[in-house]
# Entry
Amino acid sequence: MPYASWAEYWWDVVTGPSGLVAQVVEGLEQDRSVILRVPRDLPWRHEMRNVISTRLQGELEATNLVVDDVDVTEDLAANADAWSDVGRGLLDRYALRDARLDFRGGDVARYLRTKGVLANRVVWVKGLDARVLPAWESFCQAWHSRGLADGLFVVEVPFDVRPVTSERKTSGSVTMVDYAAHVNDYSAQLFCGTMLDADAPDLSTVRKRYLAAVLTHVCHGDVETAALLIDRYQAGERNLRPALESVANELPLRGSAPAAGDPHSSASGHPLAAVRRGDWSSVRLRVWQAQLEVLFPRIEAERLRIVDTLARDLWHLIGRGLTQYDVEVTNPRDVELGTLVFLMAKRDGDGERLLYVHDSGMRDRIHLLRDCRNLLAHGDCCSPQQVDQLLEVPDDIYTS
# Structure
């Protein structure tokens, strides 16, 4: 892989997240600060900042650019009044002693710009809550910057804390960038598939497609968790439950923040939060959704292939008045798997089976397909053994 890590690949290459990076960089290039709405369990947030910093340095040729983190949560823990006055807080944090002492009140933002206190600096603010967000947002709106010459801000806002700026994409000196507008399940599934292609080349294409779908649904778009589960799979752990328990222990804070309105939060079923609650039914529901997406179409495609193979015998039965669910069947392609099982078991007056399938492998396959289809159709999951059997058939059977 030409990238140092999968985290860098996620933010720099995959369509959705790389589009978010591009929009943040574009906003900063236009001399606007950025309010960035993100999930609390944002994948690889440090790597995101590094990718944005690198891209910004390259496009602006600003080799002396500094991206500096301000963790409001830590500051508030030390001082409940921290950042009640954002301008004064920035002056105290970044200005040299003489510049701090020379300030005699008035427009602190203008003073910061005049003294070049934040020159060539992007202040990246994280850990905001509803108490301090309005002050930061107001300050950024009033920060009429000449760009990096004066300094700019990126303000991370969790999904469950709604900024005023979210009502419009851009406003004054601020650009609004929303993670959810760029990153979705498609982004996550694309990433998981690419990682599996690179790290598990011996797996069949359909197996990789199935695993990518399961990881995407189970992890609810959290690709950092999904990547760790892929690592566990490659290490030989094929059972999802112990793999999730292992990752939950490795990342004790991930998925722990209750956040109404955050589609990536524990309130919406983050898998690691579900593991800690012992809520395996919600994990199973997500596995079922993935199986419905990948396995159900394969079952249907294989049913059609089987009834096409048995078409001559089925046409004969249709001519004798074959019914299904009290409805007359007029085409072999309408014959369902359950009907095939019934016809193979039912005998006529002479003791002959209504449908004799000579190939025992096909007979077993019809029973397997019927059982799996019934499970999925009624909201239940196929077992790992059934999944293995379903995925044994090569992909080209469905296209030939």
